[in-house]
Prior knowledge:
- Helix 1 (about 1-15) runs antiparallel to helix 2.
- A hairpin with a 5-residue loop joins strand 10 (about 210-215) and strand 11.
- Helices cover about 15% and strands about 35% of the residues.
- The strands form four sheets. It has a seven-stranded mixed β-sheet with strand order 5-4-9-2-1-14-16. Strands 6-8-3-7 form a four-stranded mixed β-sheet.
- It is built from four helices and 17 strands.
- The chain has a domain at about 90-300.
- The termini are far apart.
- It has helices at about 1-15, 20-30, 55-60, 190-200; strands at about 90-100, 100-110, 120-125, 135-140, 155, 160-165, 170-175, 180-185, 200-210, 210-215, 220-225, 225-230, 230, 235-240, 250-255, 270, 295-300.
- By secondary structure, the protein is α+β, with helices and mostly antiparallel strands.
Amino acid sequence: MRSAARRCLAVAALSGSVGATCALAAAASPPTKPAPAGKPGASPATKPPAKAAGKSPASQASRPAGRAAPAPKRAPPPPPPPPPLAILPSVARVKLTSHGAVVAVVEDVNLPRGEWRGESLRFHVAFGAPGPRAIDARLIAVGDGELEPPDDDDGEALTTERVPRRPRDAHALLGRETMAGIVVRVDADALGRAFARGNMAALRIRALVDAIEDASGAASVVVRLGASRGTPLTLGRLVAASSPPAPPLTRVEAKLCGPDADAHPLAVAIAPRPPDVDRAATIAPVLAVRHATDDLCVRLWSAPPAR
Length: 307
């Protein structure tokens, strides 16, 4: 400002007009601002950008902008259904043994070799609700010319697991597919050993169930039958007995039960045989008309306890 004033006075001295010349000089010379603190002549510092609230620089760098969160892992696909069963099962025998308040039910299902090619098999055996107190499965060899396995043959124990309904990879055998039950695994080696004796094996299902007493004093039990490849399983012999100290049986009544069941009473072999048994109105179970929805309903009367 002082140098500009000196120039103004010098020009005024030459021109002879001090006021006008100094006014024009002041308008032509823009005022200068003082330099900011720091180095002389440095430009003002640029203000840094504000940080994002709640996010540290490390968190911003860990996930690039625009990248979506990883998708959750998909569940494994369900197992494929088994191929059609190469054998045609049949129920060879159902044996019921009274132990008083409980009844032991033994169901022998024959498995002929058929077109079996050495594969392991899984069967769904339903029992519905309420379930049995205990249940297991065994594989027994059936000799040539025999129709059912020996009663005293323990055979080979099989692996079982409880399921709420038939799994996709198991063959339906006994009961409905939507019922709770067990899956029985029959290993190929065990089945091969059983077939070596006579080209037929039996799957023995043993269950201990609570009997329901009706108004007549009979103990009622429901035995699950079944179907294979849409064909009802043929029903063979029915046997009933009592085990001491339970009292002996005096009468047994067996019928097919279900929406389409045949109403004819079925013949039952009772051991020991009661003195007066009416067999005239019964038919052999193998002759009964079967449906895939049939079950076997059995009622057992026992002698009054001795006093």
